[in-house]
Amino acid sequence: MMSPEQSGRERLFSCERAVNLRKSFDGLSGVVEGIMGEDPEAGDLFVFFNRTHRQIKVLQWQCDGFAIWMKRLEQGSFHLPEPKGDRAKIEVNAREFAAILNGIKPEKYYKRYFRKKN
Questions:
Q1: Residue 3: inside a domain, yes or no?
Q2: Burial, 28: exposed, middle or buried (Cβ in 10 Å; 0-12, 13-18, 19+)?
Q3: Domain range spanning residue 62?
Q4: Which residues in the chain belong to E strands, given as ranges?
Q5: Is residue 46 part of a domain?
Q6: For a surface tag, which of 4, 61, 70, 79 has the fewest beta carbons within 10 Å of its beta carbon?
């Protein structure tokens, strides 16, 4: 299975707004610059959802060009973490991204496996 390359140094950003997933390389990189205010050639992963959250597209700049990965769910929908502060983008870590791709709500993942210490 091909998937986005992750070295652990790149950041993952999710666009909080629904995006028309008919957009390709240039359209999605325009969303990254115009709406999210980030550099699409930084090597970070940019995650986009459609209106129903049943499709996801990931845009990443690799050393010689852009790569796009797409996944469509036949049932259910992807779950985004709650936005904090900036409404145009949500920064997620690799664990949250894996949970999103597997249909797990990131908030529930943390409640179940990471209990607050008193």
A1: no
A2: buried
A3: 12-72+86-113
A4: 12-15, 45-49, 55-62, 65-72, 89-92
A5: yes
A6: 70
Amino acid type, 22: R
User: Residue 8 above 90 pLDDT?
Assistant: no
Overall number of domains in the chain: 1
Helix, strand, or coil here: 101? helix
Distances (CA, A) of 64 to 44, 59, 80, 102: 14, 14, 30, 29
Q: Are 38 and 89 in contact (CB under 8 A)?
A: yes
- Answer yes or no: is 28 within a domain: yes
Q: Has residue 85 got a pLDDT over 50?
A: yes
How far is Cα 40 from Cα 30, in angstroms, rounded to an integer?
8
78-101: average pLDDT: 76
